[in-house]
Amino acid sequence: MAITPSKRITVPASLLLLTAAAALLLFVLLPSLSPSSSSPVALSCPDGSSHTTTTKSPDPISTTPDDIAWLKAQLSRNSIQDPPSSPAAWHTLRKGINPRTRAQQLEDLLHFKGISHYDDDDASKHTALPCPGELLVEEHHSNYGEPWAGGRDVFEFLASSSRLAPTDHVLEIGCGTLRVGLHFIRFLDPARFHCLERDELSLMAALRYELPSQGLLHKRPLILRGEEMEFDRFGSDVIYDLIYASAVFLHMPDALVWVGLEKLSGRLKPEKGRIFVSHNIKFCSRLGGDECTKRLTQLGLEYVTKHTHDSLLFNHYEIWFEFRKLKAWSNQSSMH
């Protein structure tokens, strides 16, 4: 049986050139069409196969000018005016809202227990972490004399100034009720945040309310009650990238502060590690400039500079003093 040759199909040269150009253009554009915040990464699986995933850039620490401009635009878009100037003006804005003071909320919790609740013996059987009413109404948010929102300001300044990474180790001396610490705990990898706090009520608020209510129990921060500078309780091999004391050293005897600095100097990471102290450093200035420098040098520390950091939400600023390891000591540490 004879095989009949198929008919030859001819394609115009102009069409071939057009197709090739389109393919080249698509090849050039494909990389730019992928999301800018992530890049594909090929991963090998145990069975020999592979799949592609994306790596996400870390969230920024500080609020940017673009963030502020965006929020102001949202306020304008929703016709949100300047805050009312009187209680009566605030009241006129409320539509179906029944505000309660913390004292009133606490009374309701203690006497009326809300709308639906378990009574008597059943009351303790259905709540995994029973919390005192005083903490539930957040009375501890007023314990330290300034708005709770100020904790975010402190975190942004310290984390940015120390070039903090989620894998770093942070020690707060006197974390109180975690006004600042919550932001560090959320940012850092698990078990990277340590705190030494002496006040029992503050510890109760931090552990029984703040960590559970913020969904941060999985971060496993190590928060210990201690009266003195007992930093060895966190382990002898922990080296910190950031150590800070917010409004703590000014309430301590100078001698105790120097004891703390002596213990902390050996726990500070060479080169990168920083110690930040807020408000003032009278423990140092009372000695006189030369004597203070000499004392710091003996501990392997040096004073870096003074910072003024503004608040994002209210008319407030904080003064911070920065210390680091002496370069000579840092070099010796890296050699061993």
UniProtKB/TrEMBL annotation:
Keywords: Signal
InterPro entries to which the protein is assigned, alphabetical: SAM-dependent_MTases_sf
UniProt biased composition (Polar residues): 47-63
Keyword Nucleus (UniProt): no
Signal sequence, start to end: 1-38
Disordered: annotated span: 40-63
Presence of keyword Signal: yes
Protein's name according to its UniProt entry: S-adenosylmethionine-dependent methyltransferase
Organism (species): Canna indica
